[in-house]
Amino acid sequence: MLTLKRIGIDTHRESIAYLSRSCAHYHVEEFQAFGKIEVKANGTRIPATLNIVDDDTLLGPHELGLSEEAFRLFGLPPGTIVTIDHPRAVESLDAVRAKIQGQVLSDAQYAAVIRDVAAQRYSKMEIAAFLVGCASFMTAEEVLGLTRAMAEVGQKLRWDGKTVVDKHCIGGIPGNRTSMIVVPIVMAHGLTIPKTSSRAITSPAGTADTMEVLARVDIGTDEMRAIVEEIGGCLVWGGRVNLSPADDVLITVERPLAIDTREQMVASILSKKLTAGASYLVLDIPVGPTAKVRSQADAVRLRKLFEYVGGQLGLMLDIRITDGRQPIGRGVGPVLEARDVLAVLRNDADAPADLRERALLLAGALIESDPALRGGQGIHRARALLDSGAAMQAMERIIMAQGPSGMALTPSAIMQEVLAPDDGVVGSIDCLRIARVARMAGAPAFKGAGVDLLHKCGDAVRRGEPLYRIHAGLPTDLTFAAQLAAQDNGYRLTRSSRP
Questions:
Q1: Structural domains of the chain in order of their starting residue, each with its CATH number
Q2: pLDDT (tens digit, 9 = 90+) per residue, 71-106?
Q3: Cut 0.85: pTM above it
Q4: Which one is catalytic: 260, 318, 323, 459?
């Protein structure tokens, strides 16, 4: 019998248990060989990867420690008396081995794998093997089976007969924070849009990181439902509402390995939308030389796969292939992006025109789903709601319902400008490079960090003129970001047309 201790270590979606090498109740060596254990108490059991602790001041011989993620999953308080056991055999690993060998898996096999992934029965190495096997080859039917399996695990939101709409961008374009404009426009029209969004993993900001500058986003399912029932929409962090939890686990391995196949992208996005209760989805696929999708042909193939899987699952899709040749808006990083969003919603004269127009395009497409609206009028309705201030009022309702953050919309004062090396015209901007510079500067961990773009494609610049401004969380962050920008600032200049 061991006493449960909460170890304040964030292992990010990995369930870790800690056992003292001098444990008084178990022979550590017999568990260490397997690398995993099951922790049990009061009818609850969770699998966990085992780490051995040699420091008795951290963990005593009568204690079992759990990481933050394992503690959340276990759901029992510190001091609970627990026992441990050898891990049960994970039979679905046979399907993973079959996939690695190039076999086509059945719906039942995908369902078994996804159940075990969501239950934390897979190590990161085993998850990586599954992802690599799927990346090698998947049929359209397999993508459908994987999507179904992911949608079946975790919470499922139902909205009592309401027609629920949603919007998603596949990502890869810095500053493309259209959701925070689309949601209030669509709400102002009267459609229901419960928007769950992600936090950044390797990018400088996710929608949840940026929305957190304005309002609380760490909101559970019951509170989210109450907010949507009251005002018609929300902008919350999807990780708290436990939609398609297997996807959240898979992403933690996909991103570091840079595994982002179209098959896995389709399953990830559509499983989340299905569990959120959406019946109509507008999907934004940006195309550009440094975007996730690099060519029009690739975009069309991805669109067709989305349409096939979504159609089989009863989800109506409106897919827009958009310009992804440069960042959207001016700000890259939570505070800077929130500034741009509010400028658009307030109809400020200097609001980024590209962010405004992209948001209107997508909001208009969602409003077109309203059967009461005459066809082709969606974008006109969206523009009217934005111009009149109705969308800003809807955003204010969201902020009040979720709880204002009270955070200042002030970028960090630790900053440095990146200067043009020559005269010229901005021909292209490397989205990946700008995102990396912003990330090095401390975004999104430091909300005021990021990159403020002072010039976009087509702008003429003089040598020594600032191209963008780096705002850093710490002086060391500024050093790292400035060094990265000095190696390659991400801007490509063509010969100036000016004398």
A1: 2-85 (2.40.40.20), 165-240+268-402 (3.40.1030.10), 415-494 (3.90.1170.30)
A2: 988 999 999 999 999 988 899 999 999 999 999 999
A3: yes
A4: 260
